[in-house]
Amino acid sequence: MKWNGWGYSDSRFLFNKKGQAEFTGKRYRLSGMIIPGLKDWMEGTFGASLQHKAPATPILNSTAVQPATINEAFVEEVKATTIPFSVEAEDRVFRAHGHCLHEIFALREGKIGRVPDMVVWPSCHSDVVKIVELASKHNVCLIPYGGGTSVSSALECPPEETRSIVSLDTSQMNRILWIDEKNLTAHVEAGIVGQDLERLLNESGYCTGHEPDSMEFSSLGGWVATRASGMKKNIYGNIEDLVVHVKMVTPRGVIEKSCQGPRMSTGPDVHHFIMGSEGTLGVVTEVTLKIRPMPEYQKYGSVVFPNFEQGVACLREVAKQVCAKSLSCFFWHALKPQVSSIFTSFLDGLKKFYITKFKGFDPNRLCVATLLFEGDREKVLQHEKQVYDIAAKFGGLAAGEDNGQRGYMLTFVIAYLRDLGMEYYVIGESFETSVPWDRVLDICRNVKARIIRECKDKGVQFPPLSTCRVTQTYDAGACVYFYFAFNYRGLSDPIHMFEQVEHAAREEILANGGSLSHHHGVGKLRKEWMRETVSDVGLGMLKSVKDYVDPNNIFGNRNLL
Amino acid sequence: MPSTYTSSGHEELDILEERRQSGDLSHALRTFSPQPYKEKPPCSASDLSKRTLESQYLQYVFKEIATESSLSMEEVKEDARLLLEEMSQNLQLGFIRLMGYTLSKVFKRLYTNIYVNMEGLNMLQQAIQESPVILMPTHRSYIDFLIISYVLFTYDIPVPVIAAGLPLAGMKLVGEILRRSGAFFIRRSIGSDKLYWAVLSEYVKTIVRTGFAPLEFFVEGLRSRTLKSVPPKLGMMHMVLEPYFKGEVFDITLVPISISYDRVLEESLLAHELLGIPKPKETTKGLFKATKVLQEDYGCMHVNFGQPLSVRELCQGKINRSQYNLTPRDLPKVLSPDVQACVIWLAHLIVRIQEEGSYISPWSLMACVLLQCPTSTLTERGMVWSELKDRTLWLKKLALRFGAHLRWPEQVSDQNVLLSMVALHHSIVAHKGDRVCLVREEVPIRKHRLSAEEEVNRTAVAMLMLASYRNQSLHIFLRPAMLATVIQVTKSTQRDELFTFFCFLKEILSNEFIFVPGKSTQDFEEACFLMKDCGAILFSPEEVTVTEAGQEVVSFLCAFIQPFIRSYQVMLDFLTEHEIKNISEKELHLAVRSFVIKLILSGELQTYEALSSDIQKNILSALRTLGVLTKFRGSKDNEYQVDKAAVKRINDILYGKLPPQLLHRTPYAKL
């Protein structure tokens, strides 16, 4: 794993000696391939140039890391439990950040702020119980750490924290404890990473179907703690639909339900105090999840629409009808300025295809939806037909399975692209929201325009990339992703400026009826808006839960509230 | 006169110059390919009506109305369709060309030059591609209707759809031509007709949302009868802004446009109307009669396109846009206080910007000077030319000091400039020997002698015309003039005392002049600054004192605003002395008129403007907002209830007999 960028150390985009873009490694379908369009795209979209590099600090300089504040008594007692721990700079720095732009940017510059003073690796529920007891006893601050893929500054150590900060890394709690084939549930330790969970279940012929973009690295416990969402949620549901039972260790003790009834009317669901608690109340240790037999049949697909408006109208119609239930789709805005245009062949083919069929359409306004159908073969084929029929009513044309599959593959490599950008003075971020159907078009237009206007007002030389896509559909609305990136050459404090623009974009989202977050969570990045989001009383409710469960703020990451 | 005209560094181009040199037909048939609004593909006029009628908002309203009345949904919808048919424009390029051709002919006959600021036009061209644009011209003449379309057509900018009064639609042929030139028609008194309001507002909002074309409307609502700004109408303003408030568009651009005339086509008609002679119905026949008017020279015209204003920037921090998050945005809803306040503020701001952007001709300054000469002198011997000239030139300096956009021809001697003005306005003044006197309407031959009252009316027509031209420079002198009056009435030097009286005056005059709500301090300070800048006063944080040299300025300014103050005093006198129960508005005006005429005949009053129905109306509505006068709509007549003690108190303050006190105004009525 990289210490200052996304993903595996062997996988990255680079420009080879011939000046061609290439994706290294062997892990992905794209690995080892030359991507001819990427250079032009970087130059054309951002005005970036291969001559102007902004290289990262190659290795971590441990002298830049603050010495650890050690709580001796705590360390002594941890030693006695034989739970492994470390105070090495590298281990501590690795767990001091998520993947917000500002976090990665600082690491690339070799700047390191407050980091945990110690890392512990419990290997089971009872280890966690011990650690939480000891932390309470010695007043040590605990920050749970799962996959480290947070994009809400949730893992940042509060700089004002004076106690010893201990990062509780759940990665060793990664077993499937049992599978219940009668009820189709699995009981799993919370530290398991998405891809391992799916692989292990697949071996037994099952799956959860929960596939967030980060599933290669993010953990089950992290999903629960942030209310995660996966791209196949239309078929399998979001994390809150999948969870049957949760065990969480808090300074007050362990919280869990007494049975595994599929639904209960027993007052407010205590699971909802746990889901989305973002590590402020305790550590999720074990989860019982629904599982499903692996799908009999899978089929990719893609549809091209003459413009974004028609595409959204089609998605809305699909969401109204049952066929959405076996479909997951990603919907990309205009093709031209898109990241997907790095696949020139893909794009050019589509454009030609579309233009030959429909004359008079502006190729720059075209957009594409990628589709994935899962289930039994008959249903899939039936739903597929239904979806294409609806699409046709909105001017959508089926554009092939291959394109659909490529679209999915892209999901996993997009995060690597940002690292490439940063090598060449391009910084960027994505952020999401959820919004009622009737506001989707308005929010997309207004937020994109706001980003462009803010950049202009702040003197960004090159126009920014400001685009969006619809990634999830619901009965009453959709999840929308925004992408924002620009070339920062010539700006003295690009990160500050970037944050101002992102802040303005969030204000715009809220003013247009969008939510503070669909699934990324609040963390510390968005907590200034929590009060207006949940009302005074709502915030008070959350605070009083925190005060009861964790009066001494042992789980002191200061997220959310 | 030169074809380009440079004033304070801005280039003005005479658009008639080219028309005089090349054919009107080729101008009308030129390739017209403007850069439209980038966001949306164009839609047709019939699409627009269809979208309006099918909108979710109207479905809600139809249902409401059907529930309230005994009508079926279908019937309500049919009513709405008919309203829309009556209302909607049908913009067609062919008719724009026809209009272009005709107007080229007409304008060349009427005007010597039509100046347009190219900088403003360029900014507009840019703005039109970025977001929906609202063109907001001043309204002083019928000419205003088409001049903007004409200019935009000439410069390859999308031509607007224009909100017009319904009576225009009734004119044979002309109504249809206007409709096809982009006019849509609004009834004059909509009152509480819910369906009409809903259809109109949805139609307007659909135009804005789709960026169909720039939308032009007169924020003042009506053509100004007095050539001064009219308090803005808020309904249309709100309709236009709502798509931004609700996030349906990213931004809306407002472009205030100031159209200034050397001489207004309708000048004598306006004066007659103000004296209670009603306006003739707008008919095509009437229009042809008016062709006599077309034989005359009307001098220059100035179209000044203001800086495009971003509604988003203006409303920053004033509107909480998330207030629409919890209900469907299409649901008919009562306006929230922040939206109301913002609309009111913005409408007033636009009118103020229009004022700032308007051009003043030397004639307006001459009118100011002439009006300070006793009426009897003007009507009989006349004012001495050299005095008029000297005073006007003195005033020119002051006006420039106060930041006026003065259109004073260069390379022509002052003497000739002023002489040409007198010639242009031969309907009001005449040069006789070394004097200038007022021209009054000829006495019909069949009448041997006019009654005293008729004599007053005859003079009043000329005086009101003169006053109208003075009003063109009102906004330049208004604030300093109020300060001068405050100084004169209170005889105080204490700044806070002066400020209190200033605010009092502002409240009383708030229907007469345009003040941006909530800007009293700025208004006062602006007045102080201007007066100090021209050396008329000295001021410290506590004190304001008039300088020796400033006496002349102060007395000019007092006299400048005196007609208004006097008219108010007289009206207030009337209200304290008379019972006005069970009386129609018309009867009330008649009663006031005879009261005023008596005062004029007795020599007690020199202010003919007190006869203006406009001023009378303004006072009544000011008193209503102050809660001193209430109007009930009775069975047939209006019933007025006047708090005489309060009226007297206000009048005593105005006369300087009582110290000022803050007045409580009732909030603005619902939009």
TrEMBL record, chain A:
GO biological process assignments: ether lipid biosynthetic process
GO molecular function annotations of the record: alkylglycerone-phosphate synthase activity; FAD binding
Keywords: Acetylation, FAD, Flavoprotein, Lipid biosynthesis, Lipid metabolism, Membrane, Peroxisome, Phosphoprotein, Transferase, Transit peptide
FAD-binding PCMH-type domain boundaries: 112-294
Pfam family, one: FAD_binding_4
Protein localization: Peroxisome membrane
Binding site for substrate: R418
E.C. no: 2.5.1.26
SUPFAM superfamilies: FAD-binding/transporter-associated domain-like, FAD-linked oxidases, C-terminal domain
Entry keyword DNA repair: no
Residues engaged in binding FAD: 144-150, 226-229, 278-284
A GO term from the CC aspect: peroxisomal membrane
Active-site residues, as the UniProt record annotates them: Y481 (proton donor/acceptor)
Transmembrane intervals: none
Domain of life: Eukaryota
Keyword Kinase on entry: no
The family this protein is said to belong to: Belongs to the FAD-binding oxidoreductase/transferase type 4 family.
PANTHER family cross-referenced by the UniProt entry: ALKYLDIHYDROXYACETONEPHOSPHATE SYNTHASE, PEROXISOMAL
Assembly and interaction partners: Homodimer.
Protein name: Alkylglycerone-phosphate synthase
